[in-house]
Amino acid sequence: MLAELSPALIAEVKLAAKLLAAKQHICILTGAGISAESGIPTFRDKQTGLWENYGVEDLATPEAFTRDPKLVWSWYQWRRQLVADKAPNPAHHALAQWQYHAQTSDQQVTLITQNVDDLHEQAGSSVTHLHGHLWRNRCGQCQTPSQDQPRTSYDNRNTMSFDEALLTCPHCGGYIRPDIVWFGEALPIQAWQIAEEAAANCEVFISIGTSSLVYPAAGLAQLAKQNGAKIIEINPDPTPNTIVDITLAEKAGVILPLLIEEITAL
Ligand code: NAD
Ligand code: ZN
C-alpha cells in the first residue's frame, strides 16, 4: 500500500510513525476533511442545489436563527438527511483501531473533533466533540435538551424526523434548534477543558482535515507547540498552519491506515 505514495511522502509517513510510536501522549484534532471521503461536504466545498446561494453566516450563526429560524432549521434537517446514511471511512476506522491498540500499550490517544457527525463513534472511537452534535436538539431559549432525544445520537438517526416544520419547547415556547456550536458561540466548557488539557500535555499533536481557520479549536495546535509537542498535519491542501513539523499532504483515508499500520508494527 505504501508503494502507491511518492517516495518523499513514504519517507514522511515513516518519520511520523517512528515519532508517534516512541511517544506516550498523543492528541488528535479532526475537522470536516476527515468526513469528506464519507461523502459529507465540508463548508469550504461549494454548496449545491437548494442551498448554493446561502453562506455560513446565513445558516450557522445565532443571528441567522433569530432572523429566520425556519431557514436555519430547514438547512439542518437537510444536512441530517444528507448525513443519515453516511458511514465511517478508512480514516475513522484507523483512528479507532489505534485507540483500541493503545489500551494495551502505554499510549494515551485523545481524540478531539470539530465535527458534528458521529462517524468517529460509529467506527468505535472515544471522542470529545468541540462543536456539538448534529443528531441532538435543544431549546434555543431555555437550553433544555429536547425531550424526545434518545440517549445516544447514533440510535437517534433512524427515528428523527426530517420535517422542516419548526418545533417549540414544551417548557418555554422557544424554538428548538440543533445542539451545535454555531459560529460566534462559546464552546462547551467541559469539552474545551478536555481538549486544552490534552493539547497542553501531549508530546505529539496531529491535526487532520481541518483548515486551521476556526478558533478557538485552531489554537490547540499552538498550545501544544508552546508546551514542546511536535505537530503533524494531514491535509491534501496546504493550510496557514506554520508550526507544523511533519506535513502529510494526502487524503486522511489514504494516510491514516498506512500510518497506524506502521505505528502498531513498530
Ligand atoms: P475545516 O475548516 O475543518 O476545513 C476542511 C479541511 O479539510 C480543508 O483544509 C481541506 O483541505 C481538508 N480536507 C478535505 N478533504 C480532505 C481529506 N480527504 N483528508 C484530509 N483533509 C481533507 O472545515 P469546514 O468545512 O470549514 O467547517 C468548519 C466547521 O463546520 C467544522 O469545524 C465543523 O464544526 C462544521 N462542519 C462539520 C462537518 C461534519 O461534522 N462532518 C462538516 C462541515 C462543517
Ligand atoms: Zn425552552
Short summary:
The protein has 266 residues and is of the alpha/beta class. The protein has 11 helices and 8 strands. The strands form 2 sheets. It has a 6-stranded parallel beta sheet with strand order 3-2-1-6-7-8, sandwiched between helices. A two-stranded antiparallel ribbon has the order 4-5.
Provide the descriptors you would attach to this structure in a database record:
11 helices; binds nicotinamide-adenine-dinucleotide; Rossmann fold; 266 residues; alpha/beta; binds zinc ion; SIR2/SIRT2 'Small Domain'
Describe the 3D structure.
- There is one protein chain.
- With 266 residues, the protein is of the alpha/beta class.
- It folds into 2 domains: 1-39 and 87-131 and 187-266, Rossmann fold, CATH 3.40.50; 41-85 and 133-180, SIR2/SIRT2 'Small Domain' (2-Layer Sandwich), CATH 3.30.1600.
- The protein contains 11 helices and 8 strands.
- The chain has helices spanning 7-21, 33-36, 56-59, 62-67, 69-83, 90-102, 119-123, 153-156, 189-201, 219-226, 252-265; strands at residues 25-30, 108-113, 128-129, 132-139, 176-180, 204-208, 230-234, 246-248.
- A 6-stranded parallel beta sheet has the order 3-2-1-6-7-8, with helices on both faces.
- Helix 1 (7-21) crosses helix 11 (252-265) and helix 9 packs parallel to helix 10 (219-226).
- It is elongated.
- The structure holds nicotinamide-adenine-dinucleotide and zinc ion.
- Zinc ion binds next to loops.
- InterPro entries: DHS-like_NAD/FAD-binding_dom (IPR029035), NAD-dep_sirtuin_deacylases (IPR050134), Sirtuin (IPR003000), Sirtuin_cat_small_dom_sf (IPR026591), Sirtuin_class_III (IPR027546), Ssirtuin_cat_dom (IPR026590).
- It is an enzyme of class 2 (transferase).
